[in-house]
Amino acid sequence: MDAIKGKGEQGMQNPGGQVDRPVGPHFLESMLPKVVKRRVHALKRLQVQCANIEAKFYEEVHELERKYAALYQPLFDKRRDFVTGTVEPTEEECEWHSEREEEEELAEEVKEKAAIEDAKKEEAVPREDPKGIPEFWLTIFRSVDMLSDMLQEHDEPILKHLKDIQVKFSEPGQPMSFTLEFHFESNGYFNNAVLTKVYKMKSEPDASEPFSFEGPEIIDCEGCLIDWHKGKDVTVKTIKKKQKHKGRGTVRTVTKQVPNDSFFNFFNPVKASPDEEMDEDSEFTLAQDFEIGHFFRERIVPRAVLYFTGEALEDDESFDEEELEEGDEEEQDDEDDDDDGELEPKLLYSGDPRGQSLW
Predict the structure, then answer these.
(1) Which residues contact 304 (CB under 8 A, 6 or more apart)?
(2) 344, 288 in Cβ contact below 8 A?
(3) What angle in degrees, to the nearest 10, is found between the helix axes of 311-326 and 328-340?
(4) 85 versus 128: which is more confidently predicted?
(5) Chain centroid to CA 76: how far?
(6) pLDDT tens-digit series, residues 72-112
């Protein structure tokens, strides 16, 4: 039996050297002797049992994540206090030695000299030091491509009031899920102190396709209702439209509200209905939503300061380039596979402690 070049296809050769037809998994199995096929069925039953054990493994991973999230939280709370300026870090807490320290000190000297020159040119005007780290989260939104694509100019004044983003995991005994919490200070746009987005997950093999199981996947999400102040809802815009009466010919102007692009549409996601088939655009939008939620959970929240400074962005770019160089041919094959199938709105969990990346 020789392999014929081409993705996912092999050929069976007869004694004359002619290729009969491609070999698919079901065709190959059908060609087996009955006694061998019987043993293969036994192996498949073992494989399903392996998938069920793997599902239990991921359930325990989720519990471990929940346990360690409680250990991280005091550090994240302190991060929030430093960012908002409610607590000033001590001299000891501010000590940091980096490879760029000499460059930073030199740059600081240049800035000081420039400040002295500016002070000579104009009267010194008393100015208060900024509180905390201004626009911390907004800077992250602007810097990360996945988030900046959602960000609109009218969103930015609102996100200046964002104090913190937290991840909360479902409690023991509850269905697997995680919640993103966006904490806002009092503002002139909405009454909510916290906006939430819940991502529901599943960690069990599909009864109809048990061999497709590769770990937990996000299967649905729920947003929250934003209690907007009157006239401040940036997710809609008001347009004026002229209407002409068919009989009298008179013209009147009517106003109506239509959807408007905004990051805050993130809290009103497309709903996946088990009874109705989603159109392609909705599937794509939902798949994107799952990816963004996963990115907040796995990258943005745990490493916020590094996205603020841009260091995490450099790491991401280096990783992407390395993956592209090493897996160029494999990625091309994946793209070909995608062309053959439909986009499914699900996202596999990537936090496998065994070191495997699952998405």
Answers:
(1) 79, 136, 137, 140, 165
(2) no
(3) 80
(4) 85
(5) 19
(6) 999 999 999 999 999 999 999 999 877 666 566 666 666 67
Look over the chain and give the mean of its residue pLDDT values, rounded to a whole number. Answer: 79
**What CA–CA distance (Å, rounded) separates 259 from 238?**
9
Could you tell me the two tokens for 131? 């509180």
Contacts of 113 by beta carbon, 8 Å cutoff, 6+ apart:
none
The pLDDT of residue 322 is 55
C-alpha gyration radius of the chain: 28
Distance of CA 215 to the CA centre of its chain: 17
Which residue is it, tokens 């815009």?
237
Identify the H or E element spanning 251. strand 251-259
For 272, list phi and psi in degrees, rounded to 5. -85, 120
Which one-letter amino acid corresponds to residue 209? E
Which residue is associated with the tokens 């206090």?
81
Q: Is the pLDDT of residue 157 over 60?
A: yes
Residue 203 tokens read as: 């960690």
Contact 231, 221 (CB under 8 A): no
pLDDT digits (tens, 9 = 90+) for 243-283: 777 777 777 777 888 999 999 999 999 876 666 777 788 88
| Sequence letter at residue 137 | W
Length of the chain counted residue by residue = 359
**How crowded is residue 301: how many other Cβ atoms within 10 Å of its Cβ?**
20
**Residue 33: partners with Cβ closer than 8 Å, 6 or more residues away:** none
